């Protein structure tokens, strides 16, 4: 296994040398790429939490209006689905503090 590993390292070293890149530069580039991807993931998680909250708020408003006009929930015509994202709500900005019901 050591021999196979040495061969792979030698090949990688040659490829990096031909490409004109130092192993350290490649490592920095990969770290930067991973950080960018993680930032994108965080942005998408925030957007998901925001949209889930907006969805649940809309359902509550809709149900309240139906009740205000004396329409029973059974006549809604559909069973509302509450969102339950796999990320923890309430850890974001102040607008996302409310819990899902």
Architecture overview:
With 101 residues, the chain is mainly α. The chain has one domain (2-96). Helix content is 63%, strand content 0%. The protein has helices at 2-19, 23-68. The protein starts with a helix and ends in a 33-residue tail after the last helix. 3% of the residues are buried.
Describe the protein's topology.
Layout: H1 2-19, H2 23-68
Short description:
The chain is built from 2 helices and no strands. It has 101 residues and is mostly helical. It has one domain (2-96).
Please name the defining characteristics of this protein.
101 residues, disordered C terminus
Radius of gyration: 26 Å
Task: Report the major sheet.
Answer: none
Distance between the termini: 55 Å
- Count the domains: 1
Mean pLDDT: 81
Q: How many strand units?
A: 0
Q: Number of DSSP helices?
A: 2
- The protein's oligomeric status is single chain
Q: Could you say which overall geometry the principal axes of the C-alpha atoms support?
A: rod-shaped
> What is the percent of helical residues?
55-70%
Give the SSE string.
HH
Sheet/helix structural class: mainly alpha
Strand fraction: under 5%
Low-pLDDT runs of 5+ residues are 97-101
């Amino acid at each position: 296994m050591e021999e196979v590993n040495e061969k792979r390292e030698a090949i990688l070293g040659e490829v990096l040398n031909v490409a004109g890149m130092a192993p350290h530069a490649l490592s920095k580039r990969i770290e930067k790429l991973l950080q960018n991807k993680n930032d994108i993931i965080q942005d998408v998680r925030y957007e998901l939490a925001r949209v889930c909250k907006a969805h649940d708020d809309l359902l509550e408003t809709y149900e309240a209006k139906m009740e205000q006009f004396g329409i029973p929930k059974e006549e809604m015509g559909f069973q509302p689905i509450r969102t339950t994202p796999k990320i923890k709500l309430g850890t974001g900005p102040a607008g996302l503090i409310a819990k899902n019901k």
